[in-house]
């Protein structure tokens, strides 16, 4: 979470935003002593924290007179630990995530529907795990023998792999995906609803 906070602060400042930074201790139950020091005229709160802490914070914000939207990273993309645990206090807030709403990906709609019918809703990181596993299996099939180094190189050589996430996967020379797509979700009732797609390039 700290790295995410650092990245957010750096980018926000380059865009001209005034950033006030506060540090909390994960696992605390009462954040009001810190929340109460936040100016009442802030436009928004970006909380680079995990879902359980985020749920507590959004419940405690009204206690200190704050009524502002909050946004967080993928660690808050948890319907139970964030939305449900907040008791409705997370309504309208935003969370960014690496996985699109699978019902909006034309090539994956049938798979998503059949998966949910058989197993129920996929876990937050399920589609990413499925994608990664299939990239690995493709590399193993390409190599055709139990050769760890060759399989590793085949994975890193992946270019334009079209899987269930809707975007072709290509790894750069550092082993990272060469383009970044972030999906922004808003809490609406008991669910996260995808509201924006950000293509950040390489």
Summarize the entry for a quick read:
This protein has 202 residues and is an alpha/beta fold. It has helices at residues 2-14, 32-35, 51-60, 79-84, 109-119, 126-143, 148-156; strands spanning 45-46, 70-72, 94-97, 180-188, 191-201.
What brief labels describe this structure?
Rossmann fold, 5 strands, globular
Explain what the structure shows.
This protein has 202 residues and is of the alpha/beta class. It folds into two domains: 2-97 and 180-201, Response regulator (Rossmann fold, 3-Layer(aba) Sandwich); 103-156, no CATH class. It has seven helices and five strands; from the N terminus they run ααβαβαβαααββ. A five-stranded mixed beta sheet has the order 1-2-3-4-5, with no helix packed on it. α6 packs across α7. The longest helix has 18 residues, at 126-143.
What is the CA-CA span between the terminal residues?
22 Å
What is the element string, with H for helices and E for strands?
HHEHEHEHHHEE
- In round numbers, the mean pLDDT is 93
- Please tell me the CATH architecture of the largest domain by its name: 3-Layer(aba) Sandwich
Helix count?
Answer: 7
Q: Mind telling me the CATH class of the largest domain?
A: Alpha Beta
Strand proportion: 5-15%
Give the strand line-up of the largest sheet: 1-2-3-4-5
CATH topology-level name of the largest domain: Rossmann fold
Q: Unreliable segments (pLDDT under 50, ≥5 consecutive)? A: none
